[in-house]
Amino acid sequence: MTEPHVTIYTSDSSRTTSAKMIRAMFTDLLASRELAWRLAVRDIRAQYLQAFFGILWAFILPLANTLAWVFLNSSGIVSVGETTLPYPFYVFTGTMFWAIFMDALNAPLQQVNAARSMLGKLNFPREALVVSGVYQTIFNALIKVGLLFIVMFFVGVKPGVSLIYFPLGLASLVLVGTVLGLMITPIGVLYTDVGRGLPLLMQFLMYITPVVFPMPEAGMARLLFSFNPLTPVVSTVRDWFSGQPPEFLLPFILVNLFAVVLLLLCWGIYRLAMPILIERMSA
């Protein structure tokens, strides 16, 4: 009679399992590039070529939001205080950068929901869905940035040497948005309430981020702005783009370092959760 096989888990075996998982994550990431590109091209074509206004939708909503806040401020209905840039340009850059962040935030959940039928039938690296969302976010961001340069020329704002750091700022917006999007994706797939309630939460978060309002001088509002991790991200991107000295450079660096660590954690949770999510979606 043979002895039953017994597996003993030690700290070394745990480290080995973690190392294998990390290697598998990056292997699948590399393997997903071509599929992610094809998915992104397909979705971009469907998004713009089948719409009457086409590519204009990339900045129609931010432009409408800008015009609304410029009207509220100029008419005295809302007083936003002093800004380091002309207010129309300040709010336009803020809404554009916020739109890029929101595109990155919504992309993971949208991609997984759109691929529900494919997930249950085909075996492919699930990272392809996330990478496809990043590709689409970058494409939309480039359109928005192109319009920002045009508006900058007309309002007379001159970029400085710091413009060379601006791509890092865009990467930060995509990074932080993607991390938060990955964090909510497993819950959002199981409960549609997450997707419905997210715009309400993000609308409030926008008002305590220097998007349409500058940093308050004092009080509870300044405290909320100060503890909001998106404050240094949006402010630093705007400062680099407009040639202003970055006011929150150190917090910006710290937020992005934390986002990289959180990305690995959320990525691992996403991989572990996907088989369960696919089973639930197929049921």
What's this entry about, in short?
With 283 residues, the protein is mainly α.
What is the fold's blueprint, element by element?
Layout: H1 11-31, H2 33-48, H3 57-74, H4 87-114, H5 116-119, H6 127-155, H7 166-190, H8 192-207, H9 219-227, H10 230-242, H11 249-282
Notes on the protein architecture:
The protein is 75% helix and 0% strand. By secondary structure, the chain is an all-alpha fold. α3 (57-74) packs antiparallel against α4. The radius of gyration is 22 Å and the shape is globular. The model has no long low-confidence stretch (mean pLDDT 84).
Features:
single chain; 283 residues; mainly alpha; 75% helix
The total of helices stands at 11
**Strand-residue fraction?**
under 5%
Low-confidence stretches: none
Main sheet summary: none
SSE pattern: HHHHHHHHHHH
The quaternary structure here is: single chain
Overall pLDDT: 84
Shape descriptor reads globular
